[in-house]
Protein backbone atom coordinates (compact mmCIF):
# COMPACT_ATOMS: atom_id res chain seq x y z
CA UNK A 1 0.00 0.00 0.00
CA UNK A 2 1.41 3.43 -0.97
CA UNK A 3 2.52 5.40 2.05
CA UNK A 4 2.39 8.78 0.31
CA UNK A 5 -0.37 10.30 -1.82
CA UNK A 6 1.81 13.18 -3.02
CA UNK A 7 4.89 13.23 -5.27
CA UNK A 8 8.11 15.18 -4.60
CA UNK A 9 7.19 15.82 -0.96
CA UNK A 10 9.82 13.57 0.62
CA UNK A 11 9.56 10.07 2.02
CA UNK A 12 9.65 8.42 5.42
CA UNK A 13 12.76 6.38 6.12
CA UNK A 14 12.02 2.74 6.89
CA UNK A 15 14.68 2.30 9.58
CA UNK A 16 12.72 0.76 12.49
CA UNK A 17 12.95 -2.91 13.40
CA UNK A 18 10.79 -4.98 15.75
CA UNK A 19 12.89 -4.00 18.78
CA UNK A 20 12.42 -0.30 17.98
CA UNK A 21 8.68 -0.80 17.50
CA UNK A 22 8.45 -2.60 20.82
CA UNK A 23 10.31 0.07 22.79
CA UNK A 24 8.45 2.92 21.05
CA UNK A 25 5.18 1.35 22.12
CA UNK A 26 6.40 0.67 25.66
CA UNK A 27 7.68 4.23 25.81
CA UNK A 28 4.20 5.54 25.06
CA UNK A 29 2.46 3.17 27.49
CA UNK A 30 4.55 3.17 30.67
CA UNK A 31 4.18 6.64 32.13
CA UNK A 32 2.29 8.49 34.82
CA UNK A 33 -0.73 6.22 34.27
CA UNK A 34 1.15 3.37 35.94
CA UNK A 35 3.47 5.24 38.28
CA UNK A 36 0.97 7.72 39.75
CA UNK A 37 -2.60 6.65 38.88
CA UNK A 38 -2.36 3.07 40.13
CA UNK A 39 -3.28 4.20 43.65
CA UNK A 40 -6.58 5.59 42.34
CA UNK A 41 -7.42 2.23 40.76
CA UNK A 42 -6.80 0.35 44.01
CA UNK A 43 -8.89 2.83 46.01
CA UNK A 44 -11.79 2.73 43.57
CA UNK A 45 -11.97 -0.97 42.69
CA UNK A 46 -10.28 -2.45 45.75
CA UNK A 47 -6.95 -4.37 45.70
CA UNK A 48 -8.37 -7.51 44.08
CA UNK A 49 -10.49 -5.43 41.69
CA UNK A 50 -7.45 -3.38 40.66
CA UNK A 51 -5.49 -6.50 39.74
CA UNK A 52 -8.51 -7.91 37.91
CA UNK A 53 -9.08 -4.64 36.02
CA UNK A 54 -5.50 -4.57 34.73
CA UNK A 55 -5.71 -8.21 33.67
CA UNK A 56 -8.98 -7.47 31.89
CA UNK A 57 -7.49 -4.32 30.35
CA UNK A 58 -4.50 -6.31 29.12
CA UNK A 59 -6.76 -8.89 27.49
CA UNK A 60 -8.78 -6.12 25.84
CA UNK A 61 -5.61 -4.48 24.47
CA UNK A 62 -4.42 -7.84 23.16
CA UNK A 63 -7.73 -8.28 21.33
CA UNK A 64 -7.46 -4.78 19.81
CA UNK A 65 -3.89 -5.47 18.69
CA UNK A 66 -4.99 -8.68 16.92
CA UNK A 67 -7.12 -6.53 14.63
CA UNK A 68 -4.50 -3.80 14.27
CA UNK A 69 -1.87 -6.41 13.44
CA UNK A 70 -3.83 -7.76 10.49
CA UNK A 71 -4.44 -4.25 9.14
CA UNK A 72 -0.88 -3.00 9.73
CA UNK A 73 0.80 -5.97 8.05
CA UNK A 74 -1.56 -5.89 5.06
CA UNK A 75 -1.33 -2.07 4.74
CA UNK A 76 1.74 -0.65 6.54
CA UNK A 77 1.10 3.11 6.31
CA UNK A 78 2.04 6.03 8.55
CA UNK A 79 -1.53 6.82 9.47
CA UNK A 80 -2.59 3.42 10.65
CA UNK A 81 -6.05 3.32 12.22
CA UNK A 82 -6.96 6.75 10.83
CA UNK A 83 -6.38 5.49 7.29
CA UNK A 84 -8.11 2.17 8.00
CA UNK A 85 -11.15 3.88 9.55
CA UNK A 86 -11.37 6.22 6.55
CA UNK A 87 -11.33 3.39 4.02
CA UNK A 88 -13.24 0.68 5.83
CA UNK A 89 -15.74 2.51 8.06
CA UNK A 90 -16.32 6.01 6.62
CA UNK A 91 -14.28 9.13 5.77
CA UNK A 92 -16.01 11.04 8.55
CA UNK A 93 -15.08 8.36 11.08
CA UNK A 94 -11.46 8.44 9.92
CA UNK A 95 -11.42 12.22 10.27
CA UNK A 96 -12.92 12.04 13.77
CA UNK A 97 -10.56 9.26 14.92
CA UNK A 98 -7.47 11.16 13.74
CA UNK A 99 -8.43 14.37 15.54
CA UNK A 100 -9.42 12.51 18.71
CA UNK A 101 -6.06 10.74 18.75
CA UNK A 102 -4.09 13.90 17.95
CA UNK A 103 -5.88 15.83 20.69
CA UNK A 104 -5.31 12.95 23.11
CA UNK A 105 -1.54 13.24 22.74
CA UNK A 106 -1.48 17.04 22.65
CA UNK A 107 -3.27 17.18 26.00
CA UNK A 108 -1.20 14.32 27.42
CA UNK A 109 2.04 16.04 26.43
CA UNK A 110 0.95 19.34 28.00
CA UNK A 111 0.12 17.49 31.24
CA UNK A 112 3.38 15.56 31.16
CA UNK A 113 5.55 18.64 30.67
CA UNK A 114 3.86 20.34 33.63
CA UNK A 115 4.20 17.13 35.66
CA UNK A 116 7.89 16.84 34.83
CA UNK A 117 8.44 20.47 35.84
CA UNK A 118 6.68 19.86 39.16
CA UNK A 119 8.92 16.86 39.83
CA UNK A 120 12.02 18.98 39.14
CA UNK A 121 10.90 21.40 41.85
CA UNK A 122 11.80 18.75 44.41
CA UNK A 123 15.44 19.49 43.62
CA UNK A 124 15.09 23.08 42.37
CA UNK A 125 12.21 24.61 44.38
CA UNK A 126 13.02 28.20 43.44
CA UNK A 127 12.87 27.67 39.66
CA UNK A 128 9.43 28.51 38.14
CA UNK A 129 7.49 25.58 36.66
CA UNK A 130 7.29 27.16 33.20
CA UNK A 131 11.10 27.11 32.91
CA UNK A 132 11.39 23.33 33.26
CA UNK A 133 8.22 22.75 31.19
CA UNK A 134 9.86 24.74 28.37
CA UNK A 135 13.14 22.83 28.73
CA UNK A 136 11.40 19.44 28.56
CA UNK A 137 9.31 20.53 25.57
CA UNK A 138 12.47 21.68 23.76
CA UNK A 139 14.27 18.38 24.51
CA UNK A 140 11.38 16.26 23.23
CA UNK A 141 11.02 18.41 20.12
CA UNK A 142 14.77 18.13 19.47
CA UNK A 143 14.72 14.33 19.79
CA UNK A 144 11.86 14.13 17.30
CA UNK A 145 13.78 16.10 14.69
CA UNK A 146 16.42 13.36 14.49
CA UNK A 147 16.36 10.74 11.77
CA UNK A 148 14.00 7.89 12.59
CA UNK A 149 16.99 5.62 13.24
CA UNK A 150 18.51 7.94 15.87
CA UNK A 151 15.08 8.69 17.32
CA UNK A 152 14.38 4.96 17.71
CA UNK A 153 17.70 4.33 19.46
CA UNK A 154 17.09 7.22 21.87
CA UNK A 155 13.61 5.96 22.72
CA UNK A 156 15.06 2.48 23.14
CA UNK A 157 17.40 3.72 25.89
CA UNK A 158 14.75 5.83 27.63
CA UNK A 159 12.23 2.98 27.65
CA UNK A 160 14.83 0.54 28.95
CA UNK A 161 15.28 2.63 32.12
CA UNK A 162 11.58 2.24 32.91
CA UNK A 163 11.54 -1.46 32.14
CA UNK A 164 14.49 -2.20 34.43
CA UNK A 165 13.07 0.04 37.18
CA UNK A 166 9.73 -1.79 37.13
CA UNK A 167 11.52 -5.15 37.09
CA UNK A 168 13.50 -4.15 40.22
CA UNK A 169 10.30 -2.93 41.89
CA UNK A 170 8.51 -6.23 41.16
CA UNK A 171 11.41 -8.33 42.50
CA UNK A 172 11.81 -6.26 45.70
CA UNK A 173 8.05 -6.14 46.19
CA UNK A 174 7.68 -9.91 45.87
CA UNK A 175 10.52 -10.42 48.36
CA UNK A 176 8.73 -8.12 50.81
CA UNK A 177 5.41 -9.90 50.22
CA UNK A 178 6.93 -13.25 51.16
CA UNK A 179 8.79 -11.88 54.21
CA UNK A 180 12.30 -12.16 52.76
CA UNK A 181 12.69 -8.37 52.98
CA UNK A 182 11.35 -6.38 55.98
CA UNK A 183 8.27 -4.26 55.37
CA UNK A 184 7.29 -1.45 57.73
CA UNK A 185 4.10 -2.05 59.72
CA UNK A 186 4.13 -5.85 59.39
CA UNK A 187 5.39 -8.56 61.75
CA UNK A 188 4.95 -11.43 59.32
CA UNK A 189 4.94 -11.91 55.58
CA UNK A 190 2.06 -9.81 54.12
CA UNK A 191 1.50 -12.34 51.34
CA UNK A 192 -1.92 -11.69 49.71
CA UNK A 193 -3.88 -10.69 52.82
CA UNK A 194 -4.55 -7.13 51.57
CA UNK A 195 -6.21 -8.41 48.40
CA UNK A 196 -9.32 -9.56 50.24
CA UNK A 197 -9.10 -7.48 53.44
CA UNK A 198 -12.09 -5.37 52.34
CA UNK A 199 -13.78 -8.11 50.32
CA UNK A 200 -13.16 -8.98 46.69
CA UNK A 201 -15.00 -5.93 45.34
CA UNK A 202 -15.65 -3.46 48.19
CA UNK A 203 -17.38 -1.01 45.83
CA UNK A 204 -19.13 -3.72 43.83
CA UNK A 205 -19.14 -4.11 40.07
CA UNK A 206 -19.69 -0.36 39.72
CA UNK A 207 -16.27 0.28 41.23
CA UNK A 208 -14.66 -2.26 38.91
CA UNK A 209 -16.28 -1.00 35.71
CA UNK A 210 -15.72 2.66 36.60
CA UNK A 211 -11.91 2.26 36.65
CA UNK A 212 -11.75 0.74 33.17
CA UNK A 213 -11.33 4.14 31.50
CA UNK A 214 -8.29 4.83 33.68
CA UNK A 215 -6.94 1.34 32.98
CA UNK A 216 -7.47 1.72 29.23
CA UNK A 217 -5.74 5.10 29.35
CA UNK A 218 -2.82 3.48 31.20
CA UNK A 219 -2.45 1.01 28.31
CA UNK A 220 -2.79 3.71 25.64
CA UNK A 221 0.27 4.03 23.43
CA UNK A 222 0.51 0.37 22.47
CA UNK A 223 -1.29 1.23 19.21
CA UNK A 224 1.82 3.18 18.10
CA UNK A 225 3.05 -0.08 16.59
CA UNK A 226 0.47 0.46 13.86
CA UNK A 227 1.45 4.11 13.31
CA UNK A 228 5.15 3.25 13.01
CA UNK A 229 4.53 0.35 10.61
CA UNK A 230 5.00 2.77 7.69
CA UNK A 231 8.55 3.51 8.90
CA UNK A 232 9.53 -0.12 9.54
CA UNK A 233 12.11 -1.95 7.47
CA UNK A 234 10.15 -5.22 7.24
CA UNK A 235 6.53 -4.77 8.42
CA UNK A 236 5.48 -8.36 7.67
CA UNK A 237 8.06 -9.65 10.13
CA UNK A 238 8.56 -6.73 12.54
CA UNK A 239 4.93 -5.82 13.29
CA UNK A 240 3.66 -9.29 14.38
CA UNK A 241 6.78 -9.86 16.48
CA UNK A 242 6.50 -6.43 18.11
CA UNK A 243 2.80 -6.91 18.87
CA UNK A 244 3.29 -10.28 20.51
CA UNK A 245 6.36 -9.35 22.57
CA UNK A 246 5.04 -5.92 23.59
CA UNK A 247 1.62 -7.10 24.75
CA UNK A 248 3.03 -10.04 26.71
CA UNK A 249 5.61 -7.78 28.37
CA UNK A 250 3.09 -5.07 29.22
CA UNK A 251 0.41 -7.42 30.56
CA UNK A 252 2.94 -9.28 32.73
CA UNK A 253 4.58 -6.06 33.97
CA UNK A 254 1.34 -4.22 34.65
CA UNK A 255 -0.35 -7.20 36.29
CA UNK A 256 2.63 -8.07 38.51
CA UNK A 257 3.13 -4.43 39.44
CA UNK A 258 -0.51 -4.09 40.48
CA UNK A 259 -0.33 -7.40 42.36
CA UNK A 260 2.65 -6.13 44.37
CA UNK A 261 1.09 -2.71 45.05
CA UNK A 262 -2.31 -4.15 45.98
CA UNK A 263 -0.74 -6.79 48.24
CA UNK A 264 1.53 -4.40 50.12
CA UNK A 265 -0.62 -1.28 50.41
CA UNK A 266 -3.93 -1.20 52.31
CA UNK A 267 -6.83 0.11 50.24
CA UNK A 268 -7.15 3.36 52.21
CA UNK A 269 -3.44 4.13 52.03
CA UNK A 270 -3.27 3.46 48.29
CA UNK A 271 -6.09 5.90 47.80
CA UNK A 272 -4.42 8.85 49.50
CA UNK A 273 -0.81 8.38 48.44
CA UNK A 274 0.41 10.47 45.52
CA UNK A 275 2.97 7.95 44.30
CA UNK A 276 2.35 4.40 45.61
CA UNK A 277 5.74 3.25 44.29
CA UNK A 278 7.47 5.70 46.66
CA UNK A 279 5.41 4.43 49.61
CA UNK A 280 6.41 0.82 48.92
CA UNK A 281 10.11 1.71 48.52
CA UNK A 282 9.97 3.73 51.77
CA UNK A 283 8.41 0.86 53.71
CA UNK A 284 10.95 -1.63 52.37
CA UNK A 285 13.63 0.77 53.58
CA UNK A 286 15.27 1.76 50.29
CA UNK A 287 17.47 4.84 50.95
CA UNK A 288 16.55 7.96 48.95
CA UNK A 289 13.52 6.11 47.56
CA UNK A 290 11.63 9.34 46.82
CA UNK A 291 14.56 10.73 44.83
CA UNK A 292 15.01 7.45 42.98
CA UNK A 293 11.36 7.33 41.98
CA UNK A 294 11.44 11.02 41.09
CA UNK A 295 14.22 10.31 38.58
CA UNK A 296 12.48 7.20 37.19
CA UNK A 297 9.16 9.02 36.74
CA UNK A 298 11.03 11.87 35.00
CA UNK A 299 12.54 9.45 32.48
CA UNK A 300 9.11 7.82 32.10
CA UNK A 301 7.56 11.20 31.29
CA UNK A 302 10.34 12.11 28.87
CA UNK A 303 10.03 8.74 27.12
CA UNK A 304 6.22 8.88 26.92
CA UNK A 305 6.38 12.47 25.65
CA UNK A 306 8.94 11.49 23.04
CA UNK A 307 6.65 8.74 21.74
CA UNK A 308 3.60 10.99 22.04
CA UNK A 309 4.97 13.80 19.85
CA UNK A 310 5.98 11.19 17.28
CA UNK A 311 2.41 9.83 17.22
CA UNK A 312 0.78 13.29 17.13
CA UNK A 313 2.91 14.53 14.23
CA UNK A 314 2.36 11.36 12.18
CA UNK A 315 -1.40 11.49 12.72
CA UNK A 316 -1.52 15.13 11.58
CA UNK A 317 0.62 14.21 8.57
CA UNK A 318 -1.79 11.38 7.76
CA UNK A 319 -4.75 13.78 7.79
CA UNK A 320 -2.89 15.96 5.28
CA UNK A 321 -1.85 12.94 3.22
CA UNK A 322 -5.51 11.88 2.95
CA UNK A 323 -6.51 15.39 1.80
CA UNK A 324 -8.55 16.15 4.93
CA UNK A 325 -6.50 19.21 5.95
CA UNK A 326 -4.00 21.48 4.18
CA UNK A 327 -1.61 19.57 1.86
CA UNK A 328 1.21 21.84 3.05
CA UNK A 329 1.61 19.62 6.13
CA UNK A 330 2.49 16.58 4.02
CA UNK A 331 6.05 17.76 3.40
CA UNK A 332 8.75 15.42 4.77
CA UNK A 333 12.32 16.73 5.22
CA UNK A 334 15.57 14.98 4.29
CA UNK A 335 15.72 13.27 7.69
CA UNK A 336 12.34 11.63 7.07
CA UNK A 337 10.55 13.93 9.56
CA UNK A 338 7.20 15.68 8.81
CA UNK A 339 8.50 18.93 10.31
CA UNK A 340 5.47 21.07 9.49
CA UNK A 341 3.09 18.58 11.10
CA UNK A 342 5.40 18.44 14.12
CA UNK A 343 5.54 22.22 14.45
CA UNK A 344 1.75 22.47 14.32
CA UNK A 345 1.51 19.73 16.96
CA UNK A 346 3.90 21.70 19.17
CA UNK A 347 1.71 24.80 18.76
CA UNK A 348 -1.26 22.72 19.93
CA UNK A 349 0.76 21.51 22.93
CA UNK A 350 1.75 25.08 23.85
CA UNK A 351 -1.91 26.16 23.72
CA UNK A 352 -2.85 23.21 25.94
CA UNK A 353 0.00 24.13 28.31
CA UNK A 354 -1.30 27.69 28.62
CA UNK A 355 -4.82 26.34 29.20
CA UNK A 356 -3.51 24.05 31.93
CA UNK A 357 -2.07 27.05 33.76
CA UNK A 358 -4.73 29.72 33.21
CA UNK A 359 -7.93 27.71 32.57
CA UNK A 360 -7.39 24.46 34.45
CA UNK A 361 -11.00 24.14 35.63
CA UNK A 362 -12.65 24.98 32.30
CA UNK A 363 -10.85 24.60 28.97
CA UNK A 364 -8.16 22.20 30.17
CA UNK A 365 -10.69 20.04 32.03
CA UNK A 366 -12.62 19.65 28.79
CA UNK A 367 -9.43 18.75 26.88
CA UNK A 368 -8.36 16.16 29.46
CA UNK A 369 -11.82 14.60 29.47
CA UNK A 370 -11.85 14.31 25.67
CA UNK A 371 -8.34 12.81 25.73
CA UNK A 372 -9.31 10.01 28.14
CA UNK A 373 -12.48 9.27 26.19
CA UNK A 374 -10.58 9.40 22.86
CA UNK A 375 -8.40 6.38 23.65
CA UNK A 376 -11.37 4.02 23.81
CA UNK A 377 -12.99 5.54 20.71
CA UNK A 378 -9.78 5.10 18.71
CA UNK A 379 -9.48 1.49 19.84
CA UNK A 380 -13.15 0.92 19.01
CA UNK A 381 -12.53 1.93 15.39
CA UNK A 382 -9.78 -0.68 14.96
CA UNK A 383 -11.80 -3.96 15.19
CA UNK A 384 -14.67 -2.36 13.24
CA UNK A 385 -12.25 -1.44 10.44
CA UNK A 386 -10.74 -4.93 10.50
CA UNK A 387 -14.16 -6.58 10.14
CA UNK A 388 -14.91 -4.52 7.03
CA UNK A 389 -11.36 -4.92 5.69
CA UNK A 390 -11.71 -8.71 5.84
CA UNK A 391 -14.96 -8.51 3.86
CA UNK A 392 -13.25 -6.42 1.16
CA UNK A 393 -10.20 -8.69 1.15
CA UNK A 394 -12.21 -11.85 0.60
CA UNK A 395 -13.73 -10.42 -2.58
CA UNK A 396 -10.44 -10.88 -4.46
CA UNK A 397 -8.24 -12.92 -2.07
CA UNK A 398 -8.30 -15.80 0.36
CA UNK A 399 -7.66 -15.76 4.11
CA UNK A 400 -4.50 -17.81 3.55
CA UNK A 401 -2.96 -14.93 1.58
CA UNK A 402 -2.91 -12.73 4.70
CA UNK A 403 0.51 -12.69 6.37
CA UNK A 404 -1.07 -11.92 9.75
CA UNK A 405 -4.60 -13.03 10.59
CA UNK A 406 -6.96 -11.99 13.37
CA UNK A 407 -8.14 -15.34 14.76
CA UNK A 408 -11.83 -16.22 14.81
CA UNK A 409 -12.87 -13.31 12.60
CA UNK A 410 -15.46 -11.82 12.82
CA UNK A 411 -16.42 -13.27 16.24
CA UNK A 412 -13.31 -12.08 18.11
CA UNK A 413 -13.38 -8.52 16.69
CA UNK A 414 -17.07 -8.24 17.59
CA UNK A 415 -16.32 -9.40 21.14
CA UNK A 416 -13.58 -6.75 21.29
CA UNK A 417 -16.05 -4.12 20.10
CA UNK A 418 -18.62 -5.09 22.74
CA UNK A 419 -16.04 -5.03 25.56
CA UNK A 420 -14.85 -1.56 24.52
CA UNK A 421 -18.43 -0.33 24.32
CA UNK A 422 -19.06 -1.61 27.87
CA UNK A 423 -16.00 0.28 29.12
CA UNK A 424 -17.40 3.47 27.58
CA UNK A 425 -20.69 2.92 29.40
CA UNK A 426 -18.68 2.44 32.59
CA UNK A 427 -17.48 6.06 32.32
CA UNK A 428 -20.96 7.25 33.30
CA UNK A 429 -20.69 5.40 36.63
CA UNK A 430 -17.65 7.35 37.82
CA UNK A 431 -18.31 11.05 38.57
CA UNK A 432 -14.60 11.89 38.22
CA UNK A 433 -14.54 10.45 34.68
CA UNK A 434 -18.04 11.45 33.54
CA UNK A 435 -16.83 14.69 31.96
CA UNK A 436 -15.28 12.51 29.25
CA UNK A 437 -18.77 11.80 27.96
CA UNK A 438 -19.99 15.38 28.37
CA UNK A 439 -17.15 16.81 26.29
CA UNK A 440 -16.07 13.80 24.22
CA UNK A 441 -19.39 12.99 22.52
CA UNK A 442 -20.06 16.61 21.41
CA UNK A 443 -16.49 16.81 20.07
CA UNK A 444 -17.07 13.64 18.03
CA UNK A 445 -20.32 15.06 16.63
CA UNK A 446 -18.60 18.33 15.70
CA UNK A 447 -15.91 16.40 13.80
CA UNK A 448 -18.57 14.57 11.77
CA UNK A 449 -20.51 17.79 11.07
CA UNK A 450 -17.40 19.69 9.97
CA UNK A 451 -16.34 16.83 7.70
CA UNK A 452 -19.78 16.64 6.12
CA UNK A 453 -20.02 20.41 5.57
CA UNK A 454 -16.60 20.47 3.90
CA UNK A 455 -16.56 17.19 1.97
CA UNK A 456 -20.32 16.47 1.63
CA UNK A 457 -20.02 12.91 2.94
CA UNK A 458 -20.07 11.20 6.30
UniProtKB/TrEMBL annotation:
<feature type="transmembrane region" description="Helical">
    <location>
        <begin position="363"/>
        <end position="385"/>
    </location>
</feature>
<dbReference type="GO" id="GO:0016020">
    <property type="term" value="C:membrane"/>
</dbReference>
<keyword id="KW-0812">Transmembrane</keyword>
<feature type="transmembrane region" description="Helical">
    <location>
        <begin position="435"/>
        <end position="453"/>
    </location>
</feature>
<dbReference type="InterPro" id="IPR004840">
    <property type="entry name" value="Amino_acid_permease_CS"/>
</dbReference>
<dbReference type="Pfam" id="PF00324">
    <property type="entry name" value="AA_permease"/>
</dbReference>
<feature type="transmembrane region" description="Helical">
    <location>
        <begin position="129"/>
        <end position="151"/>
    </location>
</feature>
<keyword id="KW-0813">Transport</keyword>
<protein>
    <submittedName>
        <fullName>S-methylmethionine transporter</fullName>
    </submittedName>
</protein>
<keyword id="KW-1133">Transmembrane helix</keyword>
<feature type="domain" description="Amino acid permease/ SLC12A">
    <location>
        <begin position="20"/>
        <end position="458"/>
    </location>
</feature>
<feature type="transmembrane region" description="Helical">
    <location>
        <begin position="247"/>
        <end position="267"/>
    </location>
</feature>
<feature type="transmembrane region" description="Helical">
    <location>
        <begin position="88"/>
        <end position="109"/>
    </location>
</feature>
<dbReference type="InterPro" id="IPR004841">
    <property type="entry name" value="AA-permease/SLC12A_dom"/>
</dbReference>
<feature type="transmembrane region" description="Helical">
    <location>
        <begin position="337"/>
        <end position="357"/>
    </location>
</feature>
<dbReference type="GO" id="GO:0006865">
    <property type="term" value="P:amino acid transport"/>
</dbReference>
<feature type="transmembrane region" description="Helical">
    <location>
        <begin position="163"/>
        <end position="183"/>
    </location>
</feature>
<dbReference type="GO" id="GO:0055085">
    <property type="term" value="P:transmembrane transport"/>
</dbReference>
<feature type="transmembrane region" description="Helical">
    <location>
        <begin position="21"/>
        <end position="42"/>
    </location>
</feature>
<feature type="transmembrane region" description="Helical">
    <location>
        <begin position="292"/>
        <end position="317"/>
    </location>
</feature>
<keyword id="KW-0472">Membrane</keyword>
<feature type="transmembrane region" description="Helical">
    <location>
        <begin position="48"/>
        <end position="68"/>
    </location>
</feature>
<keyword id="KW-0029">Amino-acid transport</keyword>
<feature type="transmembrane region" description="Helical">
    <location>
        <begin position="203"/>
        <end position="226"/>
    </location>
</feature>
<feature type="transmembrane region" description="Helical">
    <location>
        <begin position="411"/>
        <end position="429"/>
    </location>
</feature>
Amino acid sequence: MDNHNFENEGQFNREMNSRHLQMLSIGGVIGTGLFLSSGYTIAQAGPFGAVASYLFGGIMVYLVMFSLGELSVAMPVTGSFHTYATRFISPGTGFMVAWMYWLCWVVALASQFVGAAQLMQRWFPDVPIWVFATIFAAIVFGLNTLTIGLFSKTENYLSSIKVYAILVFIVLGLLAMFGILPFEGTHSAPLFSNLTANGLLPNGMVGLVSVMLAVNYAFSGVEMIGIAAGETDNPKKAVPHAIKSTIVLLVVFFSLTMLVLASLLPMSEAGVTEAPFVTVFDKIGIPYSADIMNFIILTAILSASNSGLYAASRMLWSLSNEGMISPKLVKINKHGVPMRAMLLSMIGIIIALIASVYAEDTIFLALVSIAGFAVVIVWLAIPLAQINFRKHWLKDHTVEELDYKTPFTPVLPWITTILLAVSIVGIAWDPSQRAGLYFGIPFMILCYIYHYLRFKKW
